[in-house]
Every structure is written in structure tokens, then in C-alpha cells.
Design a protein that fits this description.
By secondary structure, the chain is an alpha+beta fold. It has 3 helices and 4 strands. A hairpin with a 5-residue loop joins strand 1 and strand 2. The chain is globular, with a radius of gyration of 16 Å. The chain starts with a strand and ends in an 8-residue tail after the last helix.
Length: 130
């Protein structure tokens, strides 16, 4: 098993503005820094509201970050998810990173396994009848 670095998160910050509450700003992430190596198991641990889900959504580019870099090793080169163009993000999602919702039933009629296998079926790596 290799210990080659695959993800580098540096100085990532994210705020949310509550427009319906007089523009209150919530600092959800502040200068997050870490890296993940191939084969490494990582746990995001923290209290409710501490930014764990926000960080995961930023790693998948569902949320744009205010500052910082999220670099992912993708097909032999580094892609900064925080600054990548939409087509490049789609390519990274298709070939390198995936997402499974913490609620596991993203679509009511599809199981967690179905959600997990959807990309493999779409790419032809797994039969839809499996």
C-alpha cells in the first residue's frame, strides 16, 4: 500500500450569510488544514455545527470556499477543487472522488448501496442488474 498524498486542504475558510436575518455572517470553517494519503483512514470528529458536513461538501465542490485551496490528485496531476472550472469538477467527480450522503437515502426509492454503485453503473464498470 502506498502512502502517496492524494488530498491537500490548506487554509480553507467558509462563511454563510443569513440574508433573512439582517445579513448575519456565520463563520463555519476557519483556516482548515490537513492532508490525506492513499490508504489512510480519516475521521472528521466534532460537535454538531462545527463544520464537518460543510468541509465534506467543499471537498466535493458542492460548496464554494471563501479562501484556501482543496487540491486533489486526479489522473496524475493536481486539481484545485476550490478554483476549478465546472467541467473539470465533473471530470474529477466521475473518475476520482465520490459522495455518499450522511442520510444514506438520497432518493427515497434507492438504497445506500444503490447510491454508492450509481457512478460505477453509469461508467459501465458495474451491471445495473448486479
Amino acid at each position: 500500500m502506498t502512502t502517496e498524498t492524494k488530498i491537500i486542504v490548506s487554509d480553507v475558510s467558509k462563511t454563510f450569510v443569513l440574508h433573512n436575518q439582517n445579513g448575519i455572517t456565520l463563520d463555519v470553517l476557519s483556516n482548515a488544514n490537513f492532508s490525506v494519503a492513499s490508504g489512510e483512514c480519516v475521521v472528521l470528529n466534532g460537535r454538531s455545527g462545527s463544520g464537518k458536513s460543510t468541509l465534506l461538501r467543499a471537498l466535493y465542490a458542492n460548496y464554494l470556499v471563501d479562501t484556501g485551496n482543496i487540491e486533489v490528485e486526479h489522473q496524475g496531476r493536481w486539481v484545485n477543487i476550490a478554483k476549478a472550472q465546472p467541467r473539470e469538477i465533473i471530470n474529477v467527480r466521475k473518475h476520482t472522488i465520490g459522495w455518499v450522503s450522511q442520510f444514506l437515502r438520497v432518493i427515497p426509492r434507492i438504497s445506500a448501496f444503490g447510491s454508492r454503485d450509481a457512478a460505477d453503473v453509469r461508467n459501465g464498470w458495474l451491471s445495473s442488474s448486479s
